[in-house]
Amino acid sequence: KNEVEQSPQNLTAQEGEFITINCSYSVGISALHWLQQHPGGGIVSLFMLSSGKKKHGRLIATINIQEKHSSLHITASHPRDSAVYICAVPLFRGEAGTASKLTFGTGTRLQVTL
Amino acid sequence: DAGVTQSPTHLIKTRGQQVTLRCSPKSGHDTVSWYQQALGQGPQFIFQYYEEEERQRGNFPDRFSGHQFPNYSSELNVNALLLGDSALYLCASSFRTGVAGANVLTFGAGSRLTVL
Asked: Which residues of chain B make contact with A86, given a CB cutoff of 8 A?
């Protein structure tokens, strides 16, 4: 069983739809990252959160540490949102600086059509 | 403010050769991590450098080695290349402080290595 699991693996939506991507993890963490990867490889960090909810534009990320679950929501989706969305958690906690040793989920490939 | 820069962006090598990839971290960042992303897969952690030392290492053979320089830039070296080493190699930088696991990461665009 993967330590970080995402669902769905693939998602097709029409422009304007509300989108939810889920991430469940089995390891204890202090923070979770949501990342966006466009074709060609570049990864952009969307959110890093350790509790509650964060919002940036049309993107909203929530996390429930007790349930080990996080969701990424996209409101009013647009074709430019088409990308792979990845959640990632640190493999270890306790030592400052270990944040960058991440375990990645397999990603959710989102395609938003007109 | 430049983000993480990686070079080269693309390269082709043959089996048995050696390759060096380079990464300059975002200004103000002092920690560099390297990831390997095979086609269709999520990134896999290779190792992390801080204060010019390897601090953490993933499940990669000794053929994968690295270095960090005093200016925080880093190199990833892979010896005796195998076909399976073909992948996108990503560098991520962060600042080693704050709550464990909560450091903001900045990723580079990656170096795409093809081994023939």
From this structure: 42-43
| Residue B107 near residue A41, CB atoms below 8 Å | no
Question: d(Cα B93, Cα A60) in Å, to the nearest integer?
Answer: 24
- Parallel, antiparallel, or unpaired: how do β-strands B111-115 and B10-13 relate? parallel
Q: Residue A66 belongs to what H/E stretch?
A: none
Q: Which amino acid is at A42?
A: G
Please count the other Cβ atoms lying within 10 Å of the Cβ belonging to residue A74. 21
**A108 → chain B, closest CA residue:** B42
The whole-angstrom distance between B84's CA and the closest CA on chain A is 18
Angle at A50 between CA A45 and CA A54, to 5 degrees: 60
Per-residue pLDDT of chain B (116 residues; tens, 9 = 90+): 568 999 999 999 999 999 999 999 999 888 899 999 998 888 898 998 988 988 888 889 999 999 999 999 999 999 999 999 999 999 998 887 544 444 577 889 999 999 99
- A35, A86, A98 member nearest B100 (Cβ): A98
List CB contacts of A57: < 8 A, sequence separation 6 or more.
none
B68 contact A CB<8A: no
Q: Do A101 and B44 touch (CB under 8 A)?
A: no
